[in-house]
Design brief:
alpha/beta, 8-stranded parallel beta barrel, 3-stranded antiparallel beta sheet, binds flavin mononucleotide
Length: 342
């Protein structure tokens, strides 16, 4: 039904309008949730446990789809084990001028340069905490955090600290996003000394809060770019180990334009099918570096170009313990999850 009826209808709208339409509709249509659950929720999925979190299956919604946490009930009903909300910044911000999201239909891809449009940490906290009581007890909420556009790279760490503190009680895990191509300078946080400062500060804060509250430290993931070379990947990995980060999400969108059928001169990050090979290469690269070390930590989360069960299997073969999906959901619809998990 999605591909025959709903997708053609949605594709009549601009990509961003269609996106907002779906999120607005489902933030109000709570009565449809049981029907969606019945139709789409996968059965008999393999679980995955990390620290104190048990993921009920290996697939989650990747960051950027639900930046403000307004449709959590939908992601739970479709059957994802987790949804990553955000990227959230300390203060609300508009993002880049529109149009800023483009469909490359022939390639089953998207280009976006949204630029972290979101309603800010306080309001996202409210959205998540108010919805939690309606969610399944085993549904995991990740919060992906970043910096405001107007914050300089020198002061970026402070923005991550603010988000971490403000959203601590709403998040089951945090992802530090240092890899979006649409916030100027953000990717320089992948450089050795900057990354070390960021991870060191976040984990000190994490330890301090957990000691104070007498709870386990919060699980923290780092989301990396597909546009890094082997040397940078090694330096990222060393930092992850040094600061005891729990997982690496590989990857965000690419600024490259690998083998596109569509003609597009739009700037921004490319996602979907054409990203798959590149993100798998980075995943495998990190997996090989990991295996050359202790081979145990961090866990790897594969993201980029999942449209089928085979795509998911490829990520697992490249070393992923979990996967995340965005663009595949736009083109394949909500039954994608059932197809890849059952
Ligand atoms: C429109 C759009 C917005 C995105 N926004 C974010 C974001 O705010 N933070 C982030 O970490 N990743 C963001 N991403 C990247 C996705 O989470 C994902 O890493 C990437 O799209 C690759 O997965 P896919 O091929 O399944 O889409 C965005 C992707 C798209 C298409």
């Amino acid at each position: 039904m999605y591909k025959i009826l709903i997708r053609p209808l949605l594709f009549l709208f601009s990509p961003e309008s269609a996106h907002n339409l779906v999120l607005n509709f489902f933030s109000k249509a709570g009565f449809l949730i049981p029907v969606i659950k019945f139709l789409y929720s996968p059965e008999n999925s393999e679980k995955f446990t990390l620290n104190n979190l048990t993921f009920r299956n290996k697939a989650g919604l990747s960051a950027g789809f639900d930046k403000n946490g307004t449709a959590l009930r939908l992601w739970d009903a479709i059957g994802f084990s987790h949804a990553e909300i955000g990227t959230v910044t300390p203060l609300p911000q508009q993002g880049n001028p529109k149009p800023r999201l483009f469909r490359l239909t022939k390639d089953k891809a998207l280009i976006n340069r949204l630029g972290f449009n979101n309603i800010g940490a306080d309001q996202v906290f409210k959205n998540i905490t108010e919805t939690k009581k309606h969610l399944s007890s085993d549904f995991i909420i990740g919060v992906n955090i970043g910096k405001n556009k107007d914050t300089s790279i020198e002061n970026a760490v402070n923005d991550y600290i603010i988000c971490f503190e403000k959203l601590y009680d709403a998040a089951d895990y945090f992802t530090l996003n240092i890899s979006s191509p649409n916030t100027e300078g953000l990717r320089t946080l992948q450089e050795d000394h900057r990354l070390s400062e960021l991870l060191g500060n976040i984990q000190s804060l994490n330890r301090m809060i957990s000691d104070k509250k007498k709870v386990n430290m919060k699980t923290v993931f780092l989301k990396i770019s597909p546009d890094i070379d082997k040397l940078s990947a090694e330096s990222v990995y060393e930092n992850v180990i040094r600061h005891n980060i729990d997982g690496i999400i590989a990857t965000n969108t690419t600024i490259g334009r690998p083998d596109l059928k569509s003609i597009s001169v739009e700037q921004g990050g490319l996602s979907g099918k054409p990203l798959k090979q590149l993100s798998n290469e980075i995943l495998k690269l990190i997996y090989d570096i990991k295996n050359a070390g202790n081979g145990f930590k961090p866990v790897l989360i594969g993201c980029g170009g999942i449209f089928s069960k085979d795509d998911m299997t490829d990520k697992i073969k490249c070393g992923a313990s979990l996967v995340q999906i965005y663009t595949g959901l736009i083109y394949e619809g909500p039954s994608l999850l059932k197809k890849i998990l059952n």
